[in-house]
Amino acid sequence: MVSQVLMSSSLEYYANPSSTHMMGLEIEQLINEARISISNLLGVNSSELIFTSGATESNNLAIFGVIRALQNNNRRLHVITTKIEHPSVIRCIEFLNDQGVDVTYLPVDCNGMVNIESLKEAIKENTALVSIMQVNNETGAIQPIEDIGNLLKNYPHIYFHVDGVQGFGKIAISLEYVDLYTISAHKIGGPKGMGLLMKKGHVNISPIMFGGNQEFGIRPGTTNITGVLSMQEAIKIAVNQQEERLNSLTMIYKRVYSVLHNIDGLHINSPSPGLGSPHILNFSYTATSSAIFLSILAKKGIIASSQSACSSKGSKESRVLMAICNDQAIASSSIRLSFHESITDEDIDRLIEALEQTVILIKTKKVFSFLADKSLEEQNIYS
Ligand code: PLP
């Protein structure tokens, strides 16, 4: 279990793995073994894994690393991405754009999917990097990574980066045609503040932080032994149980989807069952804002969100949904349910009841009296 590895390793392994004393060497050996075991699970070489502090860092390292390594010869470079990437990708690319790198933001269709033809048309002679996520974190849309990889095989000068944070462990992926792949440990039951970047041997990147020689001189800093060992355990479980997890999540998704589908005035922003990742179900009920819908759900004991945690503060409407449907009412009333495979039939019953009651409260204009009443409802929920 991840929590056991987390506890025992933080108690036992306190030496610095870069130290040359016996305890340091022992820990370095554990890190080497973890690297080999993770690389076997991912089907890559152990020298192709860089441990990082999470997906934000991995995405920054992939994007800035590739561009900085190529910028040495002063050639103007071009990057292709989509309009619906996570902020940890979009913000890097916006920054590069400000610094003189050309950028194409590919549009997506009403299912949130990129069109291969539009990618093909966007490719230029100076395109250096294509960065496209595996699964969208707001809607669960799955991108055709294999088709994109196959297309990019014809352009050996272009590196293909995939943010796999929401897909890894849920949706199968072959890393055969992917040059750089980002994983975050906490999205697969591992610890927060831990991740990795898979970087194929032929890809040159420059470091974006400077210091020690850890992680092949690309990512300095004392290696997080507790994080590495716990992430190794989480990856092992995620890979071994992927199919089982997908089946359980699909059943949950189908049940909730069919209820939402029948609610008048409710717009489902996620793909139909079987077309998207079944752990994210996003909908909009335009009669009220996301904030009010979420407050009612919270009072009923259901914790959901509206956008990604990295964009939710300070932004009223979802940038991702605007790119998908270009409808402000939908983009500012979105609710994002995320499911864990362990949730029970009773949990789903409770969720469905809460969703139906929330819609009734909104329709009957009883929201404010409900939210103001702190007596009975809250006691029932939290007792
Ligand atoms: N990419 C995607 C698609 C995400 O959903 C997230 C986090 O939710 C990240 C990147 C950032 O991950 P981390 O929290 O490990 O930095």
From TrEMBL:
SUPFAM superfamilies in the record: PLP-dependent transferases
Claim: Repeat is one of the keywords in the record: no
InterPro entries reported in the protein's UniProt record: Aminotrans_V_dom, Aminotrans_V_PyrdxlP_BS, Cysteine_dSase, PyrdxlP-dep_Trfase, PyrdxlP-dep_Trfase_major, PyrdxlP-dep_Trfase_small
Domain annotation Aminotransferase class V: ranges: 2-351
Keyword Iron in record: yes
Cofactor(s) the protein requires to work: pyridoxal 5'-phosphate
Pfam families given in the database record: Aminotran_5
Record keywords: Iron, Iron-sulfur, Metal-binding, Pyridoxal phosphate
Similarity annotation: Belongs to the class-V pyridoxal-phosphate-dependent aminotransferase family. NifS/IscS subfamily.
Entry-linked PANTHER family: CYSTEINE DESULFURASE ISCS 2-RELATED (PTHR11601:SF50), CYSTEINE DESULFURYLASE FAMILY MEMBER (PTHR11601)
This protein's name: Aminotransferase class V domain-containing protein
Organism whose genome encodes this protein: Paenibacillus odorifer
